[in-house]
Amino acid sequence: MDAFFKQIPAQALSKTFRHAVDIARYLEFQYLWVDSLCIIQDDKDDLTNQASLMCSIYGGSGINIMASGAFDGSQGCFYDRPSSWRSHITVEFSGSEVLFDCVPYRFAGGMTDMPLARRGWVVQEQLLPQRKLFFTRTEVFWKCNETHACETFPEGILPPFTAKDPVTKPISIAMWEKIVAWYSCCDLTVETDKLVAISGIAQLISNGTGEEYIAGMWRQNMEYQLCWRPWNKDGAVGIYRAPSWSWASLNGGINFSYPGKPPLYTGHLCVKVQGLQAQNATLNNSFSQVLRATLRLRCEHLLRTTYKYVSSDVHDGDTLGEIFPPWSQYETFGTILDCTSDPSNPILDNSPFHILPTTLHPGEFYIAEGLVIRATGLARGQYQRVGWFLFQELPGSASFDLEQIGNLFLDANCHAQDEDYAEIRNVEHGKTQRFIDII
């Protein structure tokens, strides 16, 4: 490494890095920043320090070179390929000849379907820079804040052929759920990078809004954000990297919405965040790796129940189940566990859980949703999220109003006992507030 501070011989670089040097020189850039060269890979402190600068490094770059077609550094940016994918045909139409451009079907997929698009770190490497060059196996693509072009369409790709971006600029906090849904489907070599590899985007949003960021979630409207749903699950994470209430605790895709569900930040909340305690790997840096975090919620309803395995969804990999009681007579009450598990596992069948309604939607098809949680046994009223539940209106029944939905929970005969709560407070007018902790 000491020798590299003085000089980096060309033969010591991978083919992709050598091509990046050629591209930078051709474009007359004086400096080139390469992540795996400029970050000392086996130095945890340097990696932590550099990760905190991603927002300014990529956001302040003149251009980002993306070796989209390469599986690794040995393949480079340039490939043997046809000189042009574009051809013309002339068709006689209404007595005159019309010239048409012909391109391969899904040709824009040459950028989105490339190996690089599957890497988790690449999400912020695509969103933060102002200008990007994508070197694919078919042609070179260009994207900036004003246009999207390529060799086939140098003046700009026509709308029918433009690959739809999961997120459009400018980046805002309103796009966070879409960013997470995109990012969660990507791969990471190091599991603990889950929050670090998206920290540059979070920092950009926080700098613009002043909002507090905790373990992949935003303090503003956090109650609504708790009801994320896993899909295409890759299984549980072997090490701690986020609290169970955060989407970052799981591998695999995450959605905050689903067909027919009311907009995310709507509905009557049954929970209220009362406290958040988090410890990050870097002091005073909420964008760094999370070591531990506890969420305290004031809850209107908490019910003891039993989870019973029903089936596994082949398409999404969901483990589906039912809650017994209080609504075993309702076929429209179902749960989805956060992690795909063997249904023969005894913890899945007739296991004690609690359900925590978080949001009620009066007058909607889906009238209530919330979390399936399980006591940790480590402290009174302390739980871990293990799943998500959805209660939808019975077919042919009248729409439920807010009071009727609430009564469904109040009339249940399996309310949590005092020992199930972390704290109980008697407040004015004879009311009682109950609190639980989720880690």
Can you offer a commentary on this structure?
The structure is a single chain. With 439 residues, the chain is an alpha+beta fold. The protein has two domains: 2-82 and 106-161, no CATH class; 212-438, no CATH class. 18% of the residues lie in helices and 30% in strands. The chain has eleven helices and 21 strands. The chain has helices at residues 2-6, 15-26, 35-38, 44-51, 54-59, 109-112, 122-127, 176-183, 199-209, 222-225, 402-410; strands spanning 64-66, 87-93, 96-102, 131-135, 140-144, 148-150, 213-214, 217-218, 229-236, 250-255, 268-269, 271-280, 290-299, 303-312, 319-324, 333-337, 351-360, 366-375, 382-392, 423-426, 432-438. The strands form five sheets. The protein has a six-stranded antiparallel beta barrel with strand order 14-15-16-19-18-17. A four-stranded mixed beta sheet has the order 1-4-5-6, with no helix packed on it. Strands 2-3 form a two-stranded antiparallel ribbon. A hairpin with an 8-residue loop joins strand 15 (319-324) and strand 16 (333-337). The longest helix has 12 residues, at 15-26. The chain is globular, with a radius of gyration of 26 Å. The two termini are 41 Å apart. Mean pLDDT is 83; it is low at 314-319.
